[in-house]
Design goal:
Elements (H helix, E strand, L loop, with lengths): L8 H16 L3 H7 L4 E10 L5 E12 L5 E8 L4 H17 L5 E8 L7 H15 L8 E5 L5 H15 L23 H17 L7 E5 L3 H14 L2 E7 L2 E4 L6 H11 L9 E3 L1 H5 L5 E4 L18 E3 L8 H9 L3 E3 L1 H4 L2 H15 L5 H26 L3 H20 L4
Parallel strand pairs: 3-4, 3-5, 6-7, 6-10, 10-11, 11-12
Antiparallel strand pairs: 1-2, 2-4, 7-8, 8-9
The protein binds glutamic acid.
């Protein structure tokens, strides 16, 4: 993946705040608050590996801003996790929760590790020890983790159990994205991809794109990308022409059948080698001729190096931070509609909010109810973002930031600065 280590995502996150602070005319003090992560915990902790040796892992949990409520955001397991990446992701969670108007601040966590090279036992021991290390600062009223890159409902079950064992009673509301059996929500598993598909459907008209019969390329075939592709194909009649994962990409101009590609990935571990499709690189997936491009992998994928070659009319960011600010500018000049991450992938945290609310009430909703409420949130948020963009004559990202940051600033102002 063209993941350029030279682009620091936290610098990007701070730059994005500056752009909006200028649009909103925020004073320097408030701007500084918005650019500063409130609380960050770094932990180094040992884990007993299967060979009997101990290995020390480094993990982070950042609570970026809690003016609007408890902090919320995922935990990612990846070899390239850094403190600044976690800070950036925590900032983006703050704006994301505000854009869809959830009563949350933003947080994020991560462990520097290679989960693909670890056994289930090693992953469980690492997860449980990390959960203990961050236990003093998480909780249903304080900070609520969730899945992110290479973590899943099983990871959340281990965290929920570890936290509950230490408390002496079950605390389902400490994490979201749990299995249904432990107080998870219907629809949470596919919520990020489903929310993204709703936003694409709403934006298509404004961007001059027809989803029915339109073509789609997806970079990243994990929880967000594969579900978005599936729903766009099954419910909106789109044709998926290219998809990729960390091992490479596949291309078939006549269209790929998503359930078959999913089955192939389950069997072989990758989309690559799917019968009847051409093998292409991850970079080529981004530059595929398609109406809609969905970056659903990692940060820093669309940069000034490839922004001129993007052929899509809509870029829907299912990943967090896939487009760097310089590339944003190029896409805007080229009249490509970018549906920014803090809107396009907010379906995940929205259903996380539903899960948390259900856990706290001890009353659970059915799938139809969850999806109806999710759709309402995504449709309304798209309309508000698009209106903010038109009103301020800015791109959708800045429109989304204007909406989000105004909400966070209002909360800061109304609360006042302590003491
Ligand atoms: N990790 C997801 C995100 O980046 C979900 C966070 C959550 O549900 O709290 O939005």
């Amino acid at each position: 993946m063209p993941n350029e280590p030279t682009i620091n995502p936290f610098e990007t996150a701070r730059k994005q705040v500056d752009i909006v602070a200028d649009v909103l005319g925020l004073d320097p003090g408030v701007r500084e608050i918005l650019k500063s992560p409130k609380r960050t915990l770094t932990v180094c902790f040992p884990v007993r590996m299967d060979d009997g040796q101990y290995r020390v892992f480094t993990g982070y949990r950042c609570q970026y801003n809690m003016a609007r409520g408890p902090t919320k955001g995922g935990i990612r397991y990846h070899p390239q996790v850094t403190l600044d990446e976690v800070r950036a992701l925590a900032a983006w969670m703050t704006w994301k929760c505000a854009v869809v108007n959830l009563p949350y601040g933003g947080g994020k966590g991560g462990i520097v590790c290679d989960p693909k090279g670890m056994s289930r036992g090693e992953l469980e021991r690492m997860t449980r020890r990390f959960a203990s290390e961050i236990a003093p600062i998480i909780g249903p009223e304080m900070d609520i983790p969730a899945p992110d890159v290479y973590t899943d409902s099983q990871t959340m079950a281990w965290i929920m159990d570890t936290y509950s064992m230490q408390r002496g009673y079950s605390v389902p509301g400490v994490v979201t994205g749990k299995p249904i059996a432990l107080g998870g929500s219907e629809g949470r598993g596919e919520a990020t991809g489903r929310g993204c598909a709703y936003v694409i459907r709403e934006a298509a008209g404004d961007a001059g794109v027809k989803v029915k019969g339109g073509t789609v390329a997806v970079q990243g075939f994990g929880n967000a990308g594969s579900v978005a592709a599936h729903i766009l194909q099954a419910e909106q009649g789109a044709k998926i022409v290219a998809v990729s994962d960390s091992k490479g990409g596949i291309y078939r101009p006549e269209g790929l059948n998503v359930p078959d590609v999913e089955a192939h990935k389950r069997k072989t571990g990758s989309v690559v080698g799917f019968p009847g499709a051409q093998t292409i690189s991850n970079e080529q997936v981004l530059e595929t001729k398609a109406d809609i491009l969905i970056p659903a992998a990692l940060e820093n994928q669309i940069t000034k190096k490839n922004a001129e070659r993007i052929q899509a009319k809509i870029v829907a960011e299912a990943a967090n931070g896939p487009t760097v600010p310089e590339a944003d500018e190029i896409l805007y000049q080229r009249k490509i509609a970018v549906l920014p991450d803090i809107l396009a992938n907010a379906g995940g945290v929205t259903v996380s909010y539903f899960e948390w609310a259900q856990d706290i009430q001890g009353y659970f909703w059915d799938l139809v109810d969850v999806n109806k409420r999710l759709e309402r949130v995504m449709v309304q948020s798209y309309e508000q973002v698009h209106k903010a963009a038109l009103d301020h004559k800015v791109n959708n990202r800045t429109g989304a930031y204007v909406l989000a940051i105004q909400r966070v600033v209002d909360a800061i102002r109304i609360r006042g600065i302590y003491p």
